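Q: What residues go here?
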């Protein structure tokens, strides 16, 4: 038999999809499960965006487009990315539109590291699992940088100093952060930039897909720090901001890499769906009240879930600064019920309490000394949040070992 390549065999996955299959199997058996697994807004795309897609289809705008996207969307995205980031000098030709933000993770790694050269990529742990998966599959060396609860899920700068070597090619940052909801302050980003100034060979991939869901103050990108613009790949898109995950529109900007990313797209999907591109243009240029209302709703639900989680025995949860994820520390809850770790707790919550969450191990290796965590996506209804966290609290109370 012909064999599957080591590269393909080494490909990781997003365990959210694996757990979701587990949840769906239980639901099919008639089990009542409250799910906090999936990382997507629980809203439809705004009406005017849907209308724009229908108009595109009806008016015959559904063929191939240039690989970098239609000019109208590149122009709008350039203006939008700049306006949200203190007026950066982003030009339409610096912007590439893709089928979601995700493909640019692979393109960025492939465009900044060489196979078999020992090139290193530093990425957040815990973090979006596709970073590590793509780093490994592309033959680069994965270098995780641990996030610290005591630093509100930023990393220690001394860790960054230690991890950067002459082989470092790319630093992946993701703020607001999946899965912790953490943010980096302007000061922290300036400190990171100060370190990077001494290592001019390192690119930055700023995964800013949750930039419109930063709840405190104005969003600030590392690309805004003097000297960082040229070497930063800004990644954003329509998925989270306008509830358009399945429409598959992401946009990335970098003056040097835009033509390179365009060529990758020509070699892979050819272009993002033209229909979705016209819809994304309307999302950017049209009224923003739907996006603002979603943000307000997420913020209210954040406050609710954090308050409720902190009332659960053995659970403590920081207030996340952005995205729609809560990342409670469940170390003490595990101890009380005799769960081996967060994954054991997750399984028991699912099977015995009917509550679906993801565990820290779905986002990387557990950070030594940082305890056990699970992720709640609070893109769920208020009722689901109240009932789900109540189930968790009841489950922990009921199963608390007497000796604990
Ligand atoms: N980056 C992060 C951190 C994400 O959480 C996600 C989606 N869950 C993506 C990128 C991918 O976004 P898209 O759906 O636009 O490809």
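A:
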């Amino acid at each position: 038999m012909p064999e599957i390549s080591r590269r393909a065999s080494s490909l990781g996955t997003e365990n959210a999809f694996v757990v979701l299959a587990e949840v769906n199997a239980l639901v099919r058996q008639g089990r009542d499960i409250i799910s906090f697994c999936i990382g997507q807004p629980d809203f439809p795309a705004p009406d005017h965006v849907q209308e724009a897609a229908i108009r595109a289809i009806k008016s015959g705008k559904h063929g191939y487009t240039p690989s970098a996207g239609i000019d109208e969307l590149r122009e709008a995205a350039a203006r939008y990315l700049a306006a949200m980031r203190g007026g950066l000098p982003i030009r339409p030709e610096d912007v590439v539109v893709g089928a979601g933000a995700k493909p640019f993770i692979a393109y960025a790694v492939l465009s900044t590291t060489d196979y078999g050269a020992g090139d290193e990529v530093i990425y957040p742990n815990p973090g979006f699992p596709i970073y590590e998966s793509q780093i490994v599959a592309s033959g680069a060396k994965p270098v995780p940088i641990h996030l610290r609860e005591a630093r509100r899920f930023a990393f220690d700068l001394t860790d960054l100093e230690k991890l950067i070597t002459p082989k470092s090619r790319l630093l992946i940052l993701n703020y607001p952060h999946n899965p912790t909801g953490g943010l980096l302050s302007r000061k922290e980003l300036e400190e990171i930039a100060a370190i990077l100034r001494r290592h001019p060979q390192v690119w930055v991939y700023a995964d800013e897909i949750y930039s419109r869901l930063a709840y405190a103050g104005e969003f600030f990108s590392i690309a805004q720090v003097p000297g960082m613009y040229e070497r930063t790949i800004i990644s954003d898109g329509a998925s989270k901001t306008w509830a358009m995950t399945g429409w598959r529109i992401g946009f990335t900007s970098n003056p040097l890499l835009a033509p390179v990313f365009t060529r990758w797209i020509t070699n892979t999907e050819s272009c993002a769906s033209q229909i979705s591109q016209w819809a994304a243009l309307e999302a950017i240029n049209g009224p923003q009240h739907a996006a603002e209302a979603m943000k307000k709703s997420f913020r209210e639900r954040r406050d609710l879930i954090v308050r409720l989680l902190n009332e659960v025995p053995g659970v403590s949860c920081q207030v996340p600064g952005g995205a729609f994820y809560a990342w409670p520390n469940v170390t003490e809850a595990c101890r009380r019920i005799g769960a081996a770790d967060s994954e054991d707790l997750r399984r028991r919550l699912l099977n015995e309490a009917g509550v679906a969450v993801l565990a820290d191990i779905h986002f990387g290796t557990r950070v030594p000394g940082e305890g056990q965590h699970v992720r709640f996506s609070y893109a769920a209804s208020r009722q689901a949040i109240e009932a789900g966290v109540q189930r968790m609290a009841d489950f922990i109370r009921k199963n608390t070992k007497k000796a604990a």
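A: Context that may help when evaluating the design: The CA atoms of residues 120 and 141 lie 5 Å apart. The chain has a mean pLDDT of 96.
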